[in-house]
Amino acid sequence: MFASIEKVRELIVGKTPVIVAADEALLRSLPAGNWIGGTIPYFMTPSGGQVSHTHAFVTEVPAFARGVRVASYDEQTISRIGADSPENGYTILILPAFSALHRRFALEAPSFEYLFLKVVAGWIAGTHLDDVGKVAPKVFAGPTGEMLDAKGVALHVDLPREYQAKIGIVNIFEQGDGDEIQFPSTGFEASECIVGGQRYRIGDYLGPAKIDIRLPLVANYNGTKCNVTIRTLDIPGSKITFFAPVFEGVKYRHAKPVGDYAQSFLAAIPHDIGEAVFCCNCVHNYQYGNLEGRRTGTLQGPMTFGEIAYQLLNQTLVHVTLSTRR
Amino acid sequence: MAESSRPYVRHLTPIVLTPGPELPPDEHPVWAKLIAGHATHEFSYPAAGMLVFNLNLQWRRDPSKLPLLIKQVRAFFQKYQHLLGGDVQKLFS
User: Which residue on chain B is closest to A87 by alpha carbon?
Assistant: First the structure.
């Protein structure tokens, strides 16, 4: 829920385990407890998208959870995230944007052991877009009160056997009708691309095309559309950079234009999923879709610098819902 | 644990636990085809599509890992059998 920091404090003092998204100053003011947090001032709230430096988005762990555990991860230990995630439950992971850990997770998470056998979701902490490069995004480990800009934090939630958590991905983008584009190597930037088996300099291929860089590159992962947001495109310098890595051997297409982001989310969010125990959406959807003051349906949460659904995603809404076994 | 102010339980959707048929063993050729990208299939559950796609990338880097990758995909299918019934039927029939 979108709440005042007093309400968040009340929940923490009352020993409710929570995940908090808020401005750094607000997170620093919270007491020690069973919580994790990450910096971000953009939110999708019941009254629509908004920027707030006074309120937080707080997500409570259901009372029927068997237990929770907060853990922090660095570049050496992040590969254990799948193994550490409970056998039956879910994990919410928050990583600071632009850190080496963010980079390692983005590049290597798809091959982390047990990752897809568990339910690992989360987001990338950020800042106000005007502060990118000036202020480092931070994450917080509630039990110790630590504020971290090079480590990540996770809340592992262990559920009773009769419940099962499931990740859902809402992607409003479709692959366009343009060429299939591949990249010669995996990474957050490229100076060349491969189209129709032929290698081109990025400037030579994308220059004449005059692409809209607000639209992501979309890959089809056996039915699941995975986006990569374009960060910068330098035509004379022949260089393109991304907010998530492109992978060697993966075929991407530039997305079809989206008319109205809010309407597209309303149409794409399934109506039968129940209440989410976690949700986040992308700050680029907020920015490019002009979502300030506009609603996108019942799934609300922080608008982040990247979404985690097992691996790093861009320009996507990620949610975790629970089902009961009967 | 403290009481959550959000009674999530009233919104939960039930899982229909109809026991599915036994999954084919690791040796069934469809598992290898799936990993090698020779059996194209669009999965109904996003995690399945992402996993199979990523296993294919790992296989392309090191084909000798195939038996290990098959174990991973089969373990996933085992765990999420209730969500993948339709996919299993299409892939193995």
Answer: B79
Does B18 lie at the interface with A, CB-CB under 8 angstroms?
no
Global pTM reads: 0.91
In this prediction the ipTM stands at: 0.85
Phi-psi region of A315 (alpha: psi -120 to 50; beta: other; left: phi over 0): left
Interface check for B8 against chain A (CB to CB < 8 A): the answer is: yes
Residue B10 has a pLDDT of: 46
- The tokens describing A220, both together, are 């089809």
- Rounded to 5 degrees, φ, ψ at A302 are -70, 150
- Residue A319 neighbours by CB under 8 Å, 6+ apart: A121, A167, A168, A170, A273, A276, A278, A279, A299
Chain B partners within 8 Å of A222 (Cβ): 40-43, 48-50, 52-53
Q: Which residues of chain A have pLDDT under 70?
A: 326
Question: A64–B13: do the CB atoms touch at under 8 Å?
Answer: no
Distances (CA, A) of B4 to A164, A207, A240, A302: 18, 54, 46, 20
User: What is the SS3 assignment for A283?
Assistant: helix
Q: Is A277 on the interface with B (CB under 8 A)?
A: yes
Residue-level pLDDT at B18: 54
Taking Cα atoms as reference points, which of A289, A263, A258, A265 lies closest to residue A175? A258
B43 and A223 in contact by Cβ < 8 A? yes
